[in-house]
Amino acid sequence: MGYVLLFDAGNTNTKICLADDQGLGESYTLPTRPANTADDWGLKIEAILARQGVSADDVEACAISSVVPPLDPLIMDMAQRFLDCEPYFAGRNLPIDLENEYARPEQVGADILVGCLSARLTYEHRNLIVIDFGTATTLACVQGTAFKGGLICPGILSSTSALSSGTAKLPKVDLEIKSPDLHWGKSTEECLNQGLVFGFASMVDGLVEKLSAQMDDPFVVATGGLSRNVAQVSERIDELRPELVMEGLWMAYYNR
């Protein structure tokens, strides 16, 4: 069995990973630019394959989770021209084996469903909450084999950008945490750092507490670019899975 090229196409970045029947390989992150051409994506993919020592002929398929519709035809054209393989889009020609109880199922992002599938196939707990710290912060609720719905909140980076671009004296800051204990900042950078990371941790902890009224003792999984930062200070996140969406794509493809 050959390699499968996995794409997690988000509004800000697109993660790319080679996988085979043994699991995931190394991941790469590129900026999502739908204005680019299929050839541009193809040349970047060729560079990734060359770095991995893999021939284009060894790639049997592309499995894609995308929330950026303008990007989809570019990846499709790239897969057919540069790799001569079939593109599988999660939720379309790549089934996601979950009941979708959303009022308008077509509105659910593929990344949310793929992450929920991965959590469902990984954990035995009946009640799951999957928190994705991406461009937006999303909380997805799973009971048994059903996606029940969830919450959408501002993202950490988008909030940080809004603060720095909308104010004259607030600088951009890193979001690294040096201590799990909250303390008042003694510089503007420190105030922002503490407020953003501990603020988002408190937000998701509070939301999980309220959702627990509908979901008895949910197991909480966190994923996404800044999940590690928040998980360090959260009281309700049970496990950190940065590659949850990639794992879900891999599972969906090999179980199709």
Describe this structure in words.
It contains seven helices and eleven strands. Helix content is 36%, strand content 27%. The strands form two sheets. The chain has a six-stranded mixed β-sheet. The chain is α/β, with parallel strands linked by helices. The mean pLDDT is 92. It folds into two domains: 87 residues, 2-Layer Sandwich (Nucleotidyltransferase, domain 5), CATH 3.30.420.40; 144 residues, Nucleotidyltransferase, domain 5 (2-Layer Sandwich), CATH 3.30.420.40. Helix 3 crosses helix 7.
Reconstruct the topology from this structure.
Layout: E1 3-9, E2 13-20, E3 23-31, H1 38-52, E4 59-66, H2 72-83, E5 86-89, E6 99-100, H3 110-122, E7 127-133, E8 136-143, E9 146-154, H4 156-166, H5 188-211, E10 219-223, H6 227-231, E11 239-240, H7 244-254
Parallel strand pairs: 1-4, 4-5, 6-9, 7-10, 10-11
Antiparallel strand pairs: 1-2, 2-3, 7-8, 8-9
Helix pairs in contact: 1-2, 3-7
Dominant shape = globular
Mean pLDDT: 92
Q: What name goes with the CATH superfamily of the largest domain?
A: ATPase, nucleotide binding domain
Tally of discrete structural domains: 2
**Which CATH class of the largest domain?**
Alpha Beta
Main sheet specs: 6 strands, mixed
Question: How helix-rich are the residues, as a percent range?
Answer: 25-40%
Element-by-element helix/strand order: EEEHEHEEHEEEHHEHEH
Cα radius of gyration in angstroms: 19 Å
Keywords: ATP-binding, Coenzyme A biosynthesis, Cytoplasm, Kinase, Metal-binding, Nucleotide-binding, Potassium, Transferase
Binding site for substrate: 102, 109-112, 188
Active site: 111
Organism: Pseudodesulfovibrio profundus
